[in-house]
Amino acid sequence: MTSKNSSSDNFLKSQARLFGRRMACTVISFLVWFFTFPVGTCLILLQDGADAAYRVDMLSSFLGFRSWTFVFTAASAFVLAIEGISWLFSRQKVDFYESMPIKRKKRFSAIWINSFLIWLIPFAIFAFGTGAWIAAGGYLMPMVMADIGVSLLRQALLFITVYAVTTVFGLLTGNIFSAVALSFIFNIYLPVTTFLGRWLCEQFLVTDPTGINNLFTKMASWLTPVGNYYSYAGEYSGETTLVVLRYMVKKALPGDIRNLALFLVFTLIAAFLFKKRKNEMAGVSLAFPGIVPLIMILLLVPGMLMTGLVVGTILPGFTAERFVIWAILMVLIGMAANCLIEAYIEGDIRFAFRRFWAFLVAAVLAVGIFGAIFFDVFGYDSYVPSADSVKGGVFMTSQREDFWRLRTMETYDEETYPAVLVTNTEDILELGRIGQKALIDRDKNMAQTEGWETYISYVGNNDRIETRHILIPADIDRDLMDRLLKDPAFREDLYPGLGADPGLCAGVLWNNVFYYEDTLLAEGDKAPAFAEKILEAYKKDLEAAAFDQIADGRLCGILNLSCTAEGDPDGKEYNDYSLPVYRSFKKTRALLKKKEADMSVPDPDMIRSVEISYYNNAEQISRTYEDPEKIRQITEGLAGTDMYYDIPFESRDNKGINVLITWKKEKPEDYYSYSFRKGGIPGFVREDLEIAP
Amino acid sequence: MIDIQNVSKSYEKIRAVHDVSLTLEDGQVFGLVGTNGAGKSTLLRLIAGILVPDQGQILVDGEPVYDNPAVRENIFFISDEPYFFPGSRAVDMKKWYKDLYPFFDTDRFDKLLKDFGLDPRRRIRTYSKGMRRQLAVICGICAGTRYLLCDETTDGLDPVMRQALKSLLGGDMEERGLTPVLASHNLRELEDICDHVGLLHQGGILLSQDIADMKLGLQKIQCVFTGEAPAELPGLEVVSHEARGRLHTYVVRSGREEAEAVFSQYSFVFYEILNLSLEEVFILETEAVGYDVKKFILG
User: Fold this and answer.
1) ipTM of the complex
2) How confident is the model at residue A671 (pLDDT cuts 50, 70, 90)?
3) Is residue A509 a contact partner of residue A562, using CB atoms and an 8 Å limit?
4) B48 contacts on A by Cβ (under 8 Å)
5) How far apart (Å, rounded) are the C-alpha atoms in residues A72 and A31?
6) What is the C-alpha separation between A517 and A513, in angstroms, rounded?
7) Do B49 and A98 touch (CB under 8 A)?
8) What is the DSSP letter of A606?
9) Among A209, A272, A523, B48, which residue has the least CB neighbours within 10 Å?
């Protein structure tokens, strides 16, 4: 007998069948995205008193690339993955599905695709539909569709990655409870264990302020889909432009690539497990009994370490006796957990000690790791680089020589944070050894050491900087400190690696170029290099810049300078200046243009009115101009090089001279905001607003 | 033809099926009997391609069945606990099976639903256990497959429905060469429907034989001799002999004519050759190979 229709199980039919079978999931997905996108948008637009900027911000926060809705996407992937394989947990369903004339891999991929479509279709319909509505309504989001597109692509990648990870851990199990528990645990396993690692290192490696922390923080996201998705994110607000979008996509790319790799690897593992999984395992705790010891070890080791940490917070101190108490408690609690898990897996308390060897391995590992960190077996805490591997060092001081002369203890002061660069490596290493030891003695051995806590950075021959936390004891050798502070190479002006011009600002102690997360950098531009370009190009402007010109917004970079206070010949008082780097500068403009930043100015013929406002002694003065000639003059000024351009992310401040343009077409929210600078302000405006020359 | 070759299957340390070899010929009704846990369901699930044998292989028409849709289009498995989609109705299941089984007969499905008095628009969850089994059987019959595997399907069916099932199977066997394989723990249920019976016990096959052959080879004679009963019956292998007063019951291994020829040498007050029930045949045959089958077949 031959089949009369060999393609009866084609793709569309199988998808139709699956949609029918998974109707509840489909309906819930539609409801979630319906309430998120169109309903959420309605609620925002209906809010009384919400201004355009607020609306744009709110709408972007769930429609665009910085959408928080990834939480729903990750949850959808998790639920659909579990639901998609849940038939494997019931013998009745296994008998039903596995007796059907469908190839197993076809069923696996059909469910996989169907899950994706259940998420994708409502998301795309409601997100793009809402985007089209917003665009048609003129709610100031010209890039809304592209923004939604980027969001959808990134969330799609997140979805398939979470789905793959969840499927793998679900397939290892044989019942729904184990599937949910194991998948959930291993979806968050790495962040939790890295958090634990950070906590351990913070508790026990006292001289490392950031190194291991940073390493663990990075690791936490690498194997975690949500971590990868969110790793780039900062706090953004305002309108999304093409430049912003490009920048964000580039910034998100490493995390997205990691997710793509995770997706591919976990999908292959899932396919392999699905192929190897025996159908008779429906209903048991774990479908692959061989992995039980591995699961036990993976769960018990961090579990016992966590126990050790909790106990450690109750019993502080670093003595061997305390370690023994901690270790015993860790092992006892670990053993209890082991027995409970085994009893659950076997479904019988009598098997609580089955595979006890796995527990013993876990206990040895946990106690070993704990002991190694506790006693700093590898000498990480006391590590000081060798003299021939470093070319210098930096240590931070807030009070320079006075501190040592007066022997006064000062608290760390964020406002003035000078650094001392020393090339006398022997002395800087000696300071490191003394400082690290003093800190270890105080924090671990409960020594009552009086001193000053600070940071020391060893600058390696390869320019790699390693920073350690130190305690400079009050009774430190004064000669050593004198030698350090009077080092011939001593320059109070530079922090290594930035290469700023020390002549820029008289008596500069330390300058640094900070960037907002949203700085518009081209690919390959590293922040310091970009900063140097700006610094070089606008040296004059910066030298001429006065404090009252500083604004928090409307800038593409901030130059943070600590300068000797004017009128202080002794150079003991400092002022911190945050100098904005504006687009208005010619070379900045050229740079930005090269990097395809939007430098356009409004067309005067399209403008109905212009409102200019100015804060004069904290009082805002506004004038609205509708005369075409005046509008033309104003826009000419806007096109000049001596003005501030509005750029994304800036917050509205009250220091500049703001220009608000209302377009001729009826879009009340459609405005364009600029700020004048220097001579860009037309004379009649200056008179009307009583702006001093 | 379903060819089971040295198949074994274990669930961790529990041996469900052990070194079973069977041949299920086309056009026969094959009955699998055995107690709960004897391995019937496992063997059926292996035949259906739901499980993979640990050892041995199962060939259906010469091809392995596991993950082989072309073969599975010709096999329909009715589980001891039939599954229907939550909230579904008979028409929904018809649509599902119609898409999957190329020879699914929708007209017949509708007709049988009507004949069995099942409302196609009613939610299946509101059906009784027996009605759900009826629906499963209807789905299986209408799927148009060559093999129909029924796991304890007759359980929960009333005698009328059981009879209807028999006639349906009989009709399909005649019309399109259906080969049903029925598993049951109750030998009596299979007696009048099966052509061939395999007895499973503790995962192994104790016996597999055509019922007709079994019955033809054994004769049950009840008689009251006019004189003394003979000490032996020359030329006949007496499988069992029971005497209650003057009433003697013999079971002999021979053809009917041979037995009649031997017994005709004696004079009787009363003499009758009785039909052996399948149950009796099984008991005798399995006892002959050393098993006390009463324990696990008849309870």
Assistant:
1) 0.86
2) very low
3) yes
4) 95, 98-99
5) 12
6) 13
7) yes
8) G
9) A523
**Sign for the pseudo-dihedral over CA of A59, A61, A63, A65:** positive
Count of other CB atoms within 10 angstroms of residue A515: 16
Cβ-defined contact of B83 to A92 (cutoff 8 Å): yes
- Best probe of the B interface among A1, A11, A109, A351, by most B CBs < 10 A, is A1
Q: Which residues pair with A82 in a beta bridge?
A: none
Look up residue A121 and give its two tokens.
Answer: 């279709």
Q: Do B72 and A101 touch (CB under 8 A)?
A: yes
Q: What is the CA radius of gyration of chain B?
A: 22
CATH fold label, A604-688: Immunoglobulin-like (2.60.40)
Strands B30-33 and B179-184 turn out to be: parallel
Contact A195, A229 (CB under 8 A): no
Q: How far is CA B64 from the centre of its chain?
A: 23
Query: Which is it for the CA torsion B279, B282, B288, B293, positive or negative?
Result: negative
∠ CA(B39), CA(B44), CA(B45), 5° rounding?
A: 100
* C-alpha distances out from residue B176 to A2, A136, A145, A284, A556, Å: 13, 64, 60, 41, 81
CA distance A639 to A603: 10
Residue B248, pLDDT > 80, answer: yes
Where exactly are the structural domains of chain A?
Answer: 11-188+224-281, 296-374, 387-485, 510-594, 604-688
Which three-class secondary structure string do you get for A414-463?
A: CCCCCEEEECCHHHHHHHHHHHHHHHHHHHCCCCCCCEEEEEEEEEECCC
- 8 Å CB contact between A630 and A607: no
Which residues 3-22 of A have a C-beta within 8 angstroms of B? 3-6, 8-9, 13, 17, 20-21
Nearest one of A47, A21, A25 to A121, comparing CA atoms: A25
Interface membership of A540 toward B (CB under 8 Å): no
The CA-based dihedral angle spanning residues B249, B252, B254, B256, taken in that order and rounded to the nearest 10 degrees: 0
- CB-side exposure of A452: number of CA atoms within 13 Å? 23
- The letter for the amino acid at A467 is T
**Interval A115-153: pLDDT, tens:** 999 999 999 999 999 988 888 876 656 678 888 898 999
Asked if the C-beta of A322 comes within 8 angstroms of chain B's C-beta atoms, the answer is no
d(CA B276, CA B283): 11
| Structural Rg of chain A based on CA atoms | 32
Percent of the residues in chain A that have a pLDDT greater than 90, as a whole number = 24
Tokens of A499: 């290469």
**pLDDT-derived band of residue B198, with 50, 70 and 90 as boundaries?**
confident
Q: Distance between CA atoms of A474 and A239, rounded to whole angstroms?
A: 53
Q: In what order do the strands lie in the sheet with A657-663?
A: A619-625, A607-616, A657-663, A671-676, A643-644
Angle between helices A176-187 and A189-204 (to 10 degrees): 50
Mean pLDDT, residues A595-615 = 66
The sheet with strand A510-514 has its strands ordered as A510-514, A557-564, A574-581
d(CA A162, CA A292): 23
**Measuring CA to CA, which residue among A361, A343, A363 is closest to residue A352?**
A343
Give burial (CB, 10 Å; 0-12/13-18/19+) of A605.
exposed
Q: Give the C-alpha separation, A65 to A485, whole Å.
A: 49
Tokens for A640? 């000049």
User: What backbone torsions phi and psi does residue A258 show, to the nearest 5 degrees?
Assistant: -60, -40
Domains and CATH numbers, chain B: 2-210 (3.40.50.300), 217-298 (3.30.70)
Span A220-245, mean pLDDT? 71
Could you tell me if A358 and A296 are in contact, meaning their C-beta atoms sit under 8 angstroms apart?
Answer: yes
CA distances from B7 to A36, A437, A484, B108 (A): 56, 71, 84, 36
How many CB atoms within 10 Å of residue A51?
12
